[in-house]
Amino acid sequence: MFARLATAAAAAALVMAGGARAQAPSEIQAPDLLVKTVTLEVVDILQKDKDIQKGDRKKVIALIEAKVLPHFNFQAMTSSAVGRNWGKASADQKARLIDEFKTLLVRTYSSALASYSNQKFDFRPLRAKSTDTDVTVNVRVMQTGTQPVTIDYDMEKRPGGWKVWDVRVAGISLVANYRTEFDNQVREAGIDGLIKTLQAKNHSLERSSVAGADRK
User: Fold this and answer.
1) Over the stretch 105-135, which tens digit does the pLDDT of each residue have?
2) Which of 109-118, 137-146, 151-160 has the highest mean pLDDT?
3) Exposed (0-12), middle (13-18) or buried (19+): which is 128, by Cβ within 10 Å?
4) What is the spatial distance between Cα 166 and Cα 44, in angstroms, rounded to a whole number?
5) HSE (CB half, 13 Å, CA atoms) of 113?
6) Taking the model in full, what pTM does it have?
């Protein structure tokens, strides 16, 4: 139960910072307000969209792609996940790693987001100075019969607004969770081997998504 809720919480993390309209620098929303406002907007979509409630993976992926990608710093997330091996990658390899890692995150958590089941959110006060450019926004996911699951959004202020560069669910870093796995793969097969592994995972997840849609 805890693992399933934590996965769903991480899935929600992918869309909570998405969906806000582009803003002028002077109109950039505070990071905690951005998370709260868009979380509630996305939850409203999940509650009203019958296809998503039935587990329509393609529609969930479309939702994530439409709302999340502009608001996450996938280059920072990927370089951190690849860790010490990032400097060994060529420019082309880095671009492919970013693309495959982004696809992996979207496809991995789309199924969990599709199974959202009316969890409630407790938005904690932001502890940061107005001049800070790197903050952590904390949210607790509440569900009857289980302990609250904490989500920490590590965010940085960029020229276009606040960007998420890591998400920690119950204290476990999404980026760090992949770092050990990626390090082992690079040690065994090099950077190209890691790229091929990511491609294979994404193709497998895509086939599962199509198969699931065909059964509906």
Assistant:
1) 888 767 666 666 778 899 999 999 989 999 9
2) 151-160
3) middle
4) 24
5) 33
6) 0.80
